[in-house]
Amino acid sequence: AQKVTQAQTEISVVEKEDVTLDCVYETRDTTYYLFWYKQPPSGELVFLIRRNSFDEQNEISGRYSWNFQKSTSSFNFTITASQVVDSAVYFCALSEVSRGATNKLIFGTGTLLAVQP
Amino acid sequence: KAGVTQTPRYLIKTRGQQVTLSCSPISGHRSVSWYQQTPGQGLQFLFEYFSETQRNKGNFPGRFSGRQFSNSRSEMNVSTLELGDSALYLCASSLAVEAVNEKLFFGSGTQLSVL
Question: Which residues contact B47 (CB under 8 A, 6 or more apart)?
Answer without folding.
Answer: B33, B34, B54, B56, B57, B58, B60, B64, B66, B76
